[in-house]
Amino acid sequence: MPISFDFSDDSTDEYFEQIAPFVTYAFMPMGDASLEDIKSKLEWVKALGPQIVCASRGSKGSVAYDGENFYEQGIKPVAPEDLKDAMAAGDSLLTAFLVTYLSKQKAGEGGADAIRESLDFAASFAAETCKVEGSWGHPLVYEN
Protein backbone atom coordinates (compact mmCIF):
# COMPACT_ATOMS: atom_id res chain seq x y z
CA MET A 1 0.00 0.00 0.00
CA PRO A 2 1.48 3.39 -0.98
CA ILE A 3 2.13 5.80 1.85
CA SER A 4 2.49 9.56 1.48
CA PHE A 5 3.95 11.93 4.02
CA ASP A 6 4.00 15.72 4.15
CA PHE A 7 7.10 16.83 6.02
CA SER A 8 6.93 20.25 7.66
CA ASP A 9 9.36 23.07 7.00
CA ASP A 10 10.95 22.47 10.39
CA SER A 11 11.58 18.74 9.88
CA THR A 12 15.15 17.87 10.83
CA ASP A 13 17.48 15.63 8.84
CA GLU A 14 17.12 13.05 11.59
CA TYR A 15 13.34 13.12 11.20
CA PHE A 16 13.63 12.62 7.44
CA GLU A 17 15.98 9.69 8.09
CA GLN A 18 13.45 8.12 10.49
CA ILE A 19 10.34 8.56 8.31
CA ALA A 20 11.34 8.65 4.63
CA PRO A 21 12.40 4.97 4.37
CA PHE A 22 8.77 3.99 5.06
CA VAL A 23 7.18 6.48 2.65
CA THR A 24 6.28 6.00 -1.02
CA TYR A 25 5.62 9.68 -1.78
CA ALA A 26 7.37 12.39 0.22
CA PHE A 27 6.33 16.04 0.11
CA MET A 28 8.00 19.04 1.71
CA PRO A 29 7.68 22.83 1.64
CA MET A 30 10.81 24.61 0.40
CA GLY A 31 9.46 28.00 -0.65
CA ASP A 32 12.52 30.20 -0.12
CA ALA A 33 15.24 27.69 -0.95
CA SER A 34 17.26 28.00 -4.14
CA LEU A 35 16.52 25.56 -6.95
CA GLU A 36 19.99 24.07 -6.42
CA ASP A 37 19.27 23.47 -2.71
CA ILE A 38 15.86 22.01 -3.53
CA LYS A 39 17.30 19.55 -6.03
CA SER A 40 19.99 18.52 -3.57
CA LYS A 41 17.41 17.94 -0.82
CA LEU A 42 15.14 15.97 -3.16
CA GLU A 43 18.04 13.74 -4.22
CA TRP A 44 18.96 13.12 -0.59
CA VAL A 45 15.40 12.31 0.49
CA LYS A 46 14.84 10.10 -2.58
CA ALA A 47 17.95 8.10 -1.63
CA LEU A 48 16.29 7.36 1.72
CA GLY A 49 13.58 5.35 -0.02
CA PRO A 50 10.53 7.17 -1.44
CA GLN A 51 9.59 6.55 -5.08
CA ILE A 52 8.77 10.21 -5.73
CA VAL A 53 9.71 13.28 -3.73
CA CYS A 54 8.20 16.71 -4.26
CA ALA A 55 8.95 20.18 -2.92
CA SER A 56 6.33 22.90 -2.94
CA ARG A 57 7.77 26.38 -3.53
CA GLY A 58 4.84 28.70 -2.90
CA SER A 59 4.59 31.28 -5.67
CA LYS A 60 7.48 29.54 -7.49
CA GLY A 61 5.52 26.33 -8.09
CA SER A 62 6.88 22.90 -7.28
CA VAL A 63 9.65 20.45 -8.16
CA ALA A 64 9.34 16.67 -8.15
CA TYR A 65 12.05 14.03 -8.50
CA ASP A 66 11.72 10.34 -9.32
CA GLY A 67 15.38 9.36 -9.13
CA GLU A 68 15.95 10.00 -12.83
CA ASN A 69 14.40 13.35 -13.68
CA PHE A 70 13.46 16.60 -12.01
CA TYR A 71 10.05 17.96 -12.95
CA GLU A 72 9.53 21.68 -12.48
CA GLN A 73 5.96 22.97 -12.40
CA GLY A 74 5.06 26.64 -12.28
CA ILE A 75 1.98 28.01 -10.58
CA LYS A 76 -1.29 28.59 -12.38
CA PRO A 77 -2.00 32.31 -12.15
CA VAL A 78 -5.02 33.55 -10.24
CA ALA A 79 -6.47 36.93 -11.17
CA PRO A 80 -5.80 39.46 -8.38
CA GLU A 81 -9.51 40.05 -7.87
CA ASP A 82 -10.04 36.29 -7.34
CA LEU A 83 -7.11 35.73 -4.97
CA LYS A 84 -8.42 35.23 -1.43
CA ASP A 85 -6.05 33.07 0.62
CA ALA A 86 -3.06 30.83 -0.12
CA MET A 87 -3.58 28.78 3.06
CA ALA A 88 -3.83 25.06 2.21
CA ALA A 89 -2.60 25.50 -1.36
CA GLY A 90 0.32 23.17 -0.61
CA ASP A 91 -2.01 20.56 0.85
CA SER A 92 -4.21 20.89 -2.22
CA LEU A 93 -1.17 20.48 -4.45
CA LEU A 94 -0.02 17.24 -2.86
CA THR A 95 -3.55 15.81 -2.64
CA ALA A 96 -4.33 16.54 -6.28
CA PHE A 97 -0.95 15.17 -7.35
CA LEU A 98 -1.49 11.92 -5.46
CA VAL A 99 -5.06 11.35 -6.62
CA THR A 100 -4.12 12.04 -10.24
CA TYR A 101 -0.85 10.10 -10.23
CA LEU A 102 -2.30 7.05 -8.47
CA SER A 103 -5.26 7.02 -10.87
CA LYS A 104 -2.87 7.10 -13.81
CA GLN A 105 -0.79 4.29 -12.32
CA LYS A 106 -3.91 2.21 -11.79
CA ALA A 107 -4.78 2.75 -15.46
CA GLY A 108 -1.29 1.61 -16.47
CA GLU A 109 -0.04 5.11 -17.25
CA GLY A 110 3.12 5.58 -15.19
CA GLY A 111 6.41 7.28 -15.87
CA ALA A 112 7.47 10.79 -16.69
CA ASP A 113 4.32 11.80 -18.55
CA ALA A 114 2.14 10.77 -15.62
CA ILE A 115 4.29 12.81 -13.23
CA ARG A 116 4.20 15.90 -15.49
CA GLU A 117 0.44 15.67 -16.04
CA SER A 118 -0.21 15.09 -12.35
CA LEU A 119 1.89 18.11 -11.36
CA ASP A 120 0.11 20.25 -13.93
CA PHE A 121 -3.32 19.24 -12.62
CA ALA A 122 -2.12 19.72 -9.03
CA ALA A 123 -1.01 23.28 -9.82
CA SER A 124 -4.44 24.04 -11.25
CA PHE A 125 -6.15 22.55 -8.21
CA ALA A 126 -3.93 24.52 -5.82
CA ALA A 127 -4.75 27.72 -7.72
CA GLU A 128 -8.46 27.07 -7.19
CA THR A 129 -7.82 26.71 -3.46
CA CYS A 130 -6.36 30.22 -3.45
CA LYS A 131 -9.77 31.53 -4.54
CA VAL A 132 -11.42 30.43 -1.27
CA GLU A 133 -11.43 32.66 1.80
CA GLY A 134 -10.01 30.84 4.77
CA SER A 135 -8.35 27.49 4.34
CA TRP A 136 -11.59 25.68 5.10
CA GLY A 137 -13.97 28.26 3.66
CA HIS A 138 -14.51 29.97 7.00
CA PRO A 139 -12.53 33.20 7.12
CA LEU A 140 -11.62 34.82 10.40
CA VAL A 141 -11.79 38.60 10.52
CA TYR A 142 -8.99 40.22 12.47
CA GLU A 143 -9.57 43.61 13.99
CA ASN A 144 -6.79 45.85 15.26
TrEMBL record:
- Name the InterPro entries for this protein: PfkB_dom, Ribokinase-like
Domain of life, per UniProt, equals: Bacteria
Indicate the segments forming the Carbohydrate kinase PfkB domain, all copies: 34-134
Q: Name one Pfam family in it.
A: PfkB
Q: What is this protein called?
A: Carbohydrate kinase PfkB domain-containing protein
Q: What species does this protein belong to? A: Collinsella tanakaei YIT 12063
